Structure formats: structure tokens, C-alpha cells
Amino acid sequence: MSVDVVVAVPAFMDMTFVGLEGLPQLGEERFAGDLVRSPGGGAITAIGCARLGLSTALAAPVGHDAAGDLIGPMLEAEGIQLTGPRSARTPITAVMPIGPERAMVTYDPGVRARAADVASLSPRAVITGLSQLDVVPGNTRAYVTVGDDDARAFAGRLPGAASRATGLFIEQREALVLTGASTAAEAAEMIGGRVKIVVVSLGSDGAAACVDGRAVQVLGYDVGPSIDTTGAGDLFVAAWAWGDAAGLAVDDALRWAALYAALSVRVPTGAGGATHLEEFVAEGARRGLPAPPERVT
């Protein structure tokens, strides 16, 4: 069985404290307006891909625990195929969004996707982390995301395998850690010496990109007040995978992906912010984005 996209990024359960006015100091207690449990990490990307009409599988192990029992059915309800063995425990992140920022605390048992599970699905594309490019089958498009852990692990020494990536997606803070650059544009250019397409997210200000050595500025979108920015980068990658599969030109795919990421911050949780295809296309049309070609499957 072949799928459009396999997500090989660890899936978390996010526990999001909604409505915080500030973070507690040591010894202090703060109260949230709500607590929402939802799929997080790579599961956010998988949900975005599925809601945009891509056949999607998640190769990241989900735990044999209460968290896994909760998010597993949520993912399957989205039409996402779960593949590979379950692990003992599910990674968990406590998310505390405050305005345009958020703080997070994570427990990660460190279990990762297996190359054999990914290859068994004959994917057109694989979304994975910088440290897991080895799970991508040969001649398969690789979209690489770089989180805080990989940025610190590979600071100043981008691995040779990075040149296999079709595209690399990273937030500004992590890009500066990874490269030692002083600006997002400089970081994009440095990584662009090894990777065909590099996107450094600037949050609500859009992104700085490097495409085949060409600097590209991706403008942001005004979507109203930010409720929760968690998962915006994950959903940028999901929309990029959709645009690439649809045959959009690179610059247009970047604009569509930036819009998808921007739309996600209007509600709590990354999974909740993954817009469905019909609404997304309507938003893009309203903002003057070029209509995506009819996708041929």
C-alpha cells in the first residue's frame, strides 16, 4: 500500500493550559481557564496533512499507556494510518501559551520510527527530523523539521545527510542555534548551501527562505489575535507537503504554507488549528493566492 506522506516525527500528547495570564514563579500557583489534551508533535503534522486531503501515515510509536490510548483513536478518526509497534510510554508535553509565545515542558522516552515501517508504506514523501534522515527510503522526497533538541545536538555541524533533504523547515530561534548566524536570512543562506529549499519561520512575520541559493521573503498574514502558536511550524510543513503534491510553484507553495501556519494560531492546540482543505482554499482565494492545480492521484 502506498501513501502520500509518512510522518516519522515523534507523536506526543499535548496538555495545553488555556487562558494563562502569566507563568508562575517558583513557589507560585497560577490557574488556567481550561486544560485541553490533544495529539502533539508529529501528530499535528499528520493531522494537517490528512485534513488537506493527503493519504497519511504516522510511523512514530504511540505508547501502551493512557496517553497513547487517548491520542491513538483521535488520529485514526482523522483517517491517519498508525504503523509500527507501540512503545511502553507516550511522550507528553505540557504547553502554556501566553499571547504570541508559549512555554513547554516535555517528557520524551526517546522511542523513534523504524526505517522498515516507513519503507513498507512506499510513501511519496516522508516528514522526519534532522537526526532521522536514515528512515527515508531512497528516491523519496524528504521534508525535514528541526526542533530545539536537534538544533542543539547539531549546532555548528549540519550532518552530511542533510543534503538528502528536499526541504528543511526550522524556526528562527533554532536556526540561530544550529548555524550560529545572527539573522534568519543569514541562517537560511548558510543551510541553503547544503539543502535545496530552506525555510526559517519568523512567526507572524512570515519566513525567510532560500530556494536553490535564491533568497525569498515570505510575508506573514494578519489573522487576528494569537491564542496558541503551538504547532504552527508543524502545520507549515503539512501545507508544504500538500502544495508540493498539488504541483504548486515553490514560491506559491511557500505562501500557501505560511497562510496555513498563520490560521492555526486562532484556537488552542496545534491539532485544533489544523484547518480543513475547503476552508483553507477559500481563505487563500480571499487573500489573492493562486488557485492550486487539480491534484492528479
From TrEMBL:
Keyword Ribonucleoprotein assigned to the entry: answer is no
Coiled-coil features, chain-numbered ranges? none
Domain Carbohydrate kinase PfkB: start-end pairs = 149-268
Keywords of this protein's UniProt record, alphabetized? Kinase, Transferase
Cleaved signal peptide residues:
none
Q: Sorted alphabetically, which InterPro entries does this protein's record hold?
A: PfkB_dom, Ribokinase-like
Which GO molecular function annotations are given, in alphabetical order? kinase activity
PANTHER family, A to Z: RIBOKINASE (PTHR10584:SF166), SUGAR KINASE (PTHR10584)
Q: What is this protein called?
A: PfkB family carbohydrate kinase
Q: Which organism was this protein described from? A: Solirubrobacter ginsenosidimutans
